[in-house]
Amino acid sequence: MNDARQRRGILAKLERSIGDPGSSDMQEWLGRALDIRIPADDLRFALVRGMERVRHRLMSSNFGLPEFLVSIDSVLDGLSLISDQDNTAISPDLSLVIGVVKGDPHDLGKNVIAAVYKAYGYRVIDLGRDVSSLVFVESVIEHKARILALSAMMSTTMTGMKDIIREVRSVCPATKIIVGGAPLSEVLARSYGADSYVESALTVIEKTRAMLGMDPGYSA
Amino acid sequence: MGRRARSGVPGRIIRSVLNGQIPPPGLIPDWLLDSAAGLFSARAGVTPLTAIERVITTIRHREPDHVPCCPLVIGASRRLVGASFPEFALHPQVSAEALMAGFEFVGGEIIVPMLDLSVEAADFGQKMIYPEDSTPHPDYSDPLIREAAGYRRLRRIDLQDAPRMSSIIEICRTLVKRMGLKGVVCGFSFGPLGVLNMMRGAQHLFRDCMNCPGEVMAALETITGVLIDFVEAQCDAGVLAVTLDTLFASWNGLSREMWEKIEGPFVREIARAIRKKGCLVAVHNCGHGIYFDSQIRCMEPSIISFAHLPDDCKDRRELKIRYGDQVVLMGYVDTPLLSSGNPFDVLQECRRMIDDLAEGGGFILAPGCEYPPNLHLDNAVALVRAARKFGRAKGART
Description:
Chain A has about 220 residues and is an alpha/beta fold. Helix content of chain A is about 50%, strand content about 10%. Chain A folds into 2 domains: about 1-85, Orthogonal Bundle (Methyltransferase, Methionine Synthase (B12-binding Domains), Chain A, domain 1); about 95-210, 3-Layer(aba) Sandwich (Rossmann fold), CATH 3.40.50. With about 400 residues, chain B is an alpha/beta fold. In chain B, about 50% of the residues lie in helices and about 10% in strands. In chain B, helix 5 packs parallel to helix 7 and helix 9 (about 200-210) packs across helix 10.
């Protein structure tokens, strides 16, 4: 009974260590959890719950991108430490190719989204920025990606999405395609042939799961 | 809005008038501006106003004959003179020619010579990429500031050694001269944190704001000194207002508290320098959930140009009620609508916007951000047409 209470307490502290400046270090609580052999999946879910809490503080005036980036770093560090002990991923079948379209150098949004996907257990193949259509197609085929996520932050580059989507559809019709970026909208995304449009990290997991026909909650 | 520089005021006003230009509004007594705006507004029901009369009426929060329009046709104007992106960015004569061509072809009342957001960073030494078919941008694989220690190594530069900023000043001078009383030229500078972002990269900069804010602020101080020189030179070139782009005062950047601490004190200084020259301070922020109240506190702007509703307003009627008497609202036609909609869609959206925001003056119709530079100009023309056609507040329309 005491053990169970202690475990719950540590998991709660671990969860709160994500994005809470008043709370102790994530590594400290993770270290304690590993010491008493709390199962890896429980630890992952605690970190993802922490991430979930932080993600829902986005798009508010008292929690900016700096805090969010530091929180993501913390979650990814934690997941990496857990993987050193137990390398079973939460959702190993959800492979996802992500990148910024050709000509566009802005990768902050893409990096944030890629990190969120990683934190939620997706197998992320990050192609970086300024990626050509051919590289997207080859990568989707090579990794049998279930999802392709495209980003564009400029109105001059976003039109390149149309060609990428058309080419990926012609070779991998089952791959679902989600797009995002400042100059885009739901209407524009649909007109380019995308399956879904995401405005920010706040809704990316829910939108992705809905696109895949899954329950909107995270896999934990 | 009422602050003004006293020294040599009559001389500067007379000089502007003799040159066929608008005197800096901050040098004109408020009572005189208000009286003029009142007269223009009364006349608006009878005869059309000139562009200048329309803008003055609007910035004094009186209703003109129709709302002024700033179509923000910047990079898109280059096609009217057959210039490539690099030619438009790097040759001030070409840029000025293109911007004037855009103004004459599309119309509107206000022109903003904002070539791209890398102008200031390029002059600090940031390596740039000038694509043929897209807007110039920093080479993010080769940032000027590679580690946190680099913030304090940033050195102040002189405008004489700053070719791109000097180009902007030259463009301002040319446009002011060529526009005369046909319209208004509004200068532009990226805010200091935006400039720093171009030299460090957003992800590193944001982490540094958390981990070593003192280092970040040391660089901001250096940049601010240069930006003050830059905006003052634009004011001396004869612009009516200077726009400061403070993107990071929004949900897309820092929290309100962090922005007020990190960038707030520096933009306050820049805004003060603009007002001291008698020019108006305008703010542009195309982020989501922008902090109107923080930016008003820090910069006391006369105009805020925005792309999305502020964080504390649920719709535009609330925006008008909360902020409509504090600042002139400028915006905020959606970029995706301009990109994917047809001119009829644009006209209808502008009409709804005017209905919600134009009452009592204090509204300038504009895109939320630069008009998409590779897009045909039909929707920019529709924007200007909407201002003329529907630009009287709903109650005043006949």
